[in-house]
Amino acid sequence: MSSLHAQLQSRNVDPELASLILTLAECGSAISTLVRGGALSGILGATESENVQGETQKKLDVIANDLIKERLSAQPLVQALASEEEDHSVDANPAGRFLVSFDPLDGSSNIDINSLVGTIFSVLPAQSGVSGEAAFMQPGRNQLAACYILYGPATVMALTTGQGTWMFTLDPQTDTFVLSDGQVQIPQQTGEFAINASNQRFWQPAMQRYIADLIAGKEGPRGRNFNMRWIAAMVGDVHRVLSRGGLFTYPQDTKNPAKPYKLRLMYEANPMAMLVEQAGGVASTGYETILDIEPEQIHQRVAVILGSKDEVETCLDYHKA
Length: 321
Ligand SMILES: O=P(O)(O)OC[C@H]1O[C@](O)(COP(=O)(O)O)[C@@H](O)[C@@H]1O
Ligand SMILES: [Mg+2]
Ligand SMILES: [Mg+2]
Fold this sequence. Notes:
Layout: H1 4-10, H2 15-37, E1 46-50, E2 56-58, H3 59-73, E3 78-83, E4 90-91, E5 98-106, E6 117-125, E7 145-151, E8 155-160, E9 165-171, E10 176-181, E11 192-194, H4 205-216, E12 227-228, H5 234-244, E13 247-250, E14 263-264, H6 265-277, E15 282-284, E16 301-302, E17 304-307, H7 309-320
Parallel strand pairs: 3-5, 11-12, 11-13
Antiparallel strand pairs: 1-2, 3-4, 5-6, 6-7, 7-8, 8-9, 9-10, 13-17, 14-16, 15-17
Helix pairs in contact: 2-3, 4-7, 5-6
The structure holds 1,6-di-O-phosphono-beta-D-fructofuranose and magnesium ion (MG) (2 copies).
The site of one magnesium ion has 4 residues, from strand 5.
GO biological process, one term: gluconeogenesis
GO molecular function: fructose 1,6-bisphosphate 1-phosphatase activity; magnesium ion binding
Family: Belongs to the FBPase class 1 family.
């Protein structure tokens, strides 16, 4: 069984980037221990405060954010960090080579029901002569690494440094991430989709038609049946897509005209898009490739359609029509 450390070495990952990835893994393992304790760890419930997104922060959102912020700020390789739970980017070490964006706790609405949650990381190169939030304004294509850690029955980590997507499982005996899949490949075809169907009446006509045709099944224009899943944690839905294929989408909608998109580009869409593309899948907004978007703000949101290549391309055809 090969450890994360050994894999990073054997695949010649830049030693400094490897050291940072090991720090991210340590953050994941520490949060995994907290999550495993549930109510006994005092992690359940909400705080009185709201984040910059206008969402009431859960206790675990804040605990996970503080834990990661502390460890990354102590990492000399990190120049600055950006988090879903921080209004602005946070400067760390001026000589640092890396910028880290993260979603400390993804799937917050699942914490109190003991369901799947995770942490998502995106690593960009620092830019000489550019600091603060401006330094983060780089397309996802520039990411040096992306990973998520899923806290489920097992704790698993999906990682890419641009040489394919790899999966690791946390060995609770040794507290080490061990390789469980050295070359994740998303099947090009699928019979499974994930969307929050309760928003159906607010979707654009293209997405309404696409989903209606999936649900029409064998008797409909697609001529075969499709099954639906919704974990309400992007990390969980994307993990299913990486594990057995599928299409995951959080499309544009008119539910709240001031907020037509749900998911955040820098620390949700970009890292997931890199993991999916490196595993042979496709990630789009419906109109553009997610990794080619030029960001304008640290907390900007985008529409997301990702997963099995053929199925996402079929969905995009509906958006062309
Ligand atoms: O509540 P909904 O509409 O099902 O939305 C679920 C989506 O919101 C999220 O929970 C947003 O992420 P956070 O929990 O990090 O805020 C995604 O993980 C998930 O895909
Ligand atoms: Mg999230
Ligand atoms: Mg979150």
